[in-house]
Amino acid sequence: MEKVLKIRDLTLRDGQQSLFATRMKQENIDALLPLYRDAKFYIMEVWGGAVPDSVMRYLGESPWDRLRACSKEMKGISLLSALSRGRNLFGYVPYPEYVLEGFYKEAIKNGLNVMRIFDALNDINNIKGSIRMINDLGGIADAAVCYTVDPKEEAPAAPAKKKGFFARLFGGSDPVPAAPEKIFTDEYFVEKAKEMERLGAKMITLKDMAGLVNPSRIFSLMPKLKHALSVPVDFHTHCTPGYGLASVLTAIIKGVDIVDTNIWWFGGGSAAPAIELVWIFCQKLGIQVDVNMDAVAKIRTQLKDARKALAAFDLNKDKWPNDFDEYYKNMPAEIDAEFDKAIKAATENREEDLLAACHKIEAYFGFPKPNELVKNAEVPGGMYSNMVANLRQLNAEDVLNEAMALIPKVRRDAGLVPLVTPTSQIVGSQAVALALDRRKGAPDYTNKNNQFVSLVKGEYGTTPVPVDPAFREKITGSPVETPYNVDSYRKPANPELPEFGGVKLAQDDEEYLLLQLLPAVATGFLKNKRKAEYEAAAANAAPVAAEEKKEEAPKQVITGPTLKAPMGGTVIEILVKPGDTVKMGQNVLVYEAMKMENDLASEVEGTVKRILVAPNDVIATDQPIIEFE
């Protein structure tokens, strides 16, 4: 009997998140959904991850509308899945269980089938509640083990000529320091997966968000997972460092049940492999890909226009892949032979030959070369594309290389956390702040985002390696690890808006859930929505009288000392007012940069003369925000 490989299509969620910073508009998705009906993917990932945040923040769209649109078209054809960050849900902080349950209940009601649940620290305590709730609500709990690697070993120092303490005391030579203990072994991942299955997971995903699983590792790890588990195993990886296609091929040969892919124009690079290349391998292996590839070809044609619409966020806008249909039809014999070489090398676990063959295949089809910067920094593709997009928005792209080089240091300092949202966003944002500290000659960690403080404090859960108490004290003020206390969660206010007729900011449970999830982003989104509704109603009621043009007040010249923004972002809250006396180090403002909240402490001591910004203002790096007498 021919083996069947099931596919989870990531194009509409992780594909666009990894390549285009989740900027795909609803109108582009609506054009694709009818074509997806015929493709009949086993699972389509369409929601969760960065989608709820990004569609509100950047596109002014409702996440609930997106889920409903997908469900309306795909119900009864493909299972719809979303990505949940365990206790962090789709946000960047831990939430109480009633917030999680509210979201899960509403999502399943609106057509979601599979919730892929992971925790960025692989802390099982952070996902067990979500597994239970999804199963109880009638969904399918897919638990994901986050793959990561041990830190690179440094070269050992040359032995000292002088005898040390132990040699002088007992004779002989000093003991050689033991090599650092390996944390992320095959057994580590297998035990995490077994525990997830025991908690009720209906499938297990090996989630390699940074593309760091090399083929030899999959060759040993995948059979162990299959042997240890009775539920289906899914493999999720990315192509950024150059392992993705080769590792997926190895996983297929070693018995994986489901693989995650994207359709051509949204595949490769910092995203997952393209289904078309997986399909070619499976044809040669005699494995049936459980997808209608003729329908995939129609989607591929439409996706080209969708990618053109995302040009402003396209990391490879000047170097697209070659047209699959043309290049497959005219594929020379030597490239066809590389597919056979890759299969033989994968079967025999000859990694160097396997990678060489896969890289030749990817080069022929025009996919990007392995990204050495990302490979060395060990970061996910989506994290990289979001860092680029956010820094571009802040006009600070020149700091990218410095920040990327600092990511391994920040990761080590924070307890060797795997890099996946929210830890990837927290560590990435903190690496940018660290790079800016060093540019200004300030001590490391002068500027700390609030979520990094919470991570080091222990509020996100137990890190794979304990945080150095001295470092924790430096960052948080106390050496003691302090878990998150759900009692500290404050429900966001739902104020009336007098400027829009006195309506409530959130009009129903769905909208209030968005406020609970992402208060700053949802407030801006919902205010704009209420404003549009108010203006539409006013326009329908009566003609709007022309307003008299008001003379602009003359700009006041800044004469006193100022406090400047260390990093561009959006003002969330101002903590002082004119006339207040401010001390050195006092927090005066909360602002959001790269999706992280930051407290801004004053570097000036004195009396506040003027506040130069307002809540929701977008500020630039080094922009004056407070003037002092």
Q: Got a strand count? A: 19
Strand content: 5-15%
Query: What are the segments in which pLDDT stays under 50 over at least 5 consecutive residues?
Result: 153-179, 544-550
Q: Characterize the main sheet.
A: 8 strands, parallel, barrel
Termini distance? 82 Å
In spatial order, strands of the major sheet run 1-2-3-4-5-6-7-8
| Helix-strand makeup class | alpha/beta
Brief characterization of the structure:
Among the domains are: 381-488, Orthogonal Bundle (Cyclin A, domain 1), CATH 1.10.472; 497-539, no CATH class; 562-628, OB fold (Dihydrolipoamide Acetyltransferase, E2P), CATH 2.40.50. Helices cover 43% and strands 14% of the residues.
